[in-house]
Amino acid sequence: MSVGRAAIRRAWQRGEITSAPFIIDEHDRSDEDEPYRLSKAEMRKLLIKSKEWPHLHLFIMISLNTLARPGAVLDLAPNQVDLDARLIDLNPRGRKRTKKGRPIVPITDTLLPYITRRDVSRFVNWHGKPIQSIKKGFATVVSAAGLSKDTTPYSLRHTMAAELRARGVPAWEVEGLLGHKLPGTTERYAKFAPDYLSQGAAAIDAYFTDILNPKNKFDGFSRVCVPLAWHNDISPDGDIPKSLMFSMGKMVDPTGIEPVTPTMST
Fold first, then answer.
1. Alpha helices in the chain, H assignment, sequence order
2. Residue ranges for the chain with pLDDT beneath 70
3. Which of 165, 187, 227, 257 has a 20 to 30 Å separation from 172 between CA atoms?
């Protein structure tokens, strides 16, 4: 049915037919086909297990922090990342911006340490080579983490979209992060505003606070950000050694505060 819809729509766009009928397949609109959304406990297991495959872990982190589609995550290159402006253009240079939007999104505090490299053609790669499809590898980590086989790469995007709405992020910000709305003449300058999609970015960081520190053992920090790529000491139930706690993008230990630097992230 979906193939038939696509063929008819293409024929209408090419002017081969004067109109296109509305076709709906009740089966593919059922609730059963909605992407599986992960609970916080399931997401914690996925994040921890994915550390055994660095390229999959990076794919997951970029997906969760940008809400991008899998293809956009696999395409993401250093020249799309503006570290000074703290923005990521998910649409590669030279690629036409289509209705299936690849928006410009803010860089969260959680994601920042993962995307500082400039010596790779793509952030998500296998031995330096771009990856064409992540489905097989993602299924492997899902199985290893003991999660439902219904968990797909799209589950990351839909889990975060639902999470942001649950945290009170305005619908227009969620739509902006998902790329559901193409910017108009005025809106295309929105990215220069200091509060551009700021509520969404803050909610994403807060989500990782909950994921990585579910027991709230360390009070007094307004934000906790622990990039998983930096250590292997997080237990499946979320315990984090105090020496590895991060607050507001800075490492906090019993002796003081040390700023996060590019050297540390490398």
1. 2-13, 40-50, 54-66, 70-75, 135-144, 153-166, 171-178, 198-212, 262-265
2. 22-33, 97-100, 181-195, 214-266
3. 227
